[in-house]
Write a structure and sequence with these properties.
Layout lengths: L1 H18 L1 H4 L3 H26 L9 H27 L3 H71 L2
Helix pairs in contact: 1-3, 3-4, 4-5
């Protein structure tokens, strides 16, 4: 990947030399290219600094290596979007890419509706479960009150029998 970044830097330098600095960076994709190069270089520098700070040992769980990995992943995503821009110019790949974007948009809508319905189903299940628990607890309380009512009637009879009122 370092060869890709080095080649990318050389191409950008040649384009800046050919077009001029102001004209070159007046276009949006050239600014994006600059940020791609910047994040790749920052990731490589951070990897080297972290590697040197840990006595030339590779410790991928340390915070410096994780930060370098995050920068590298961000640069890779930006490079993919740069490549996607190049595909739009091609007469064969451009329409395919547009149809792929439309398809992904429909798949995203489908997944959103699926997530909404599954969450709605979970809420409904929780509601019915709590309603059933509440109903069974009410029935249990009713049974207890009936038992206590029967016990109090029996106690009254015993009191009357004992004291002969």
């Amino acid at each position: 990947m370092m060869v890709f970044v080095f080649g990318f830097v050389v191409v950008e330098c040649l384009e800046v030399h050919r077009q001029g600095l102001l004209l070159h960076y007046s276009k949006w994709w050239n600014v994006v290219d600059f940020f791609i190069i910047l994040t790749f270089v920052a990731a490589y520098v951070l990897w080297m600094v972290a590697w040197g700070a840990y006595d030339k040992q590779w410790k991928p769980r340390s915070r410096a290596f994780i930060a370098a990995d995050i920068l590298y992943a961000s640069a890779s995503v930006l490079a993919y979007f740069h490549l996607a821009h190049v595909f739009q110019v091609n007469s064969t790949l451009g329409p395919l890419q547009l149809s792929l974007y439309k398809m992904l948009k429909y798949v995203l809508k489908l997944l959103t509706s699926f997530c909404f319905t599954s969450r709605f189903s979970l809420v409904r299940q929780r509601y019915t479960r709590t309603t059933l628990q509440h109903r069974t607890s009410c029935e249990a309380r009713m049974r207890l009150s009936m038992i206590s009512h029967i016990r109090s009637r029996n106690m009254r009879k015993r009191f009357l029998v004992c004291f002969g009122c």
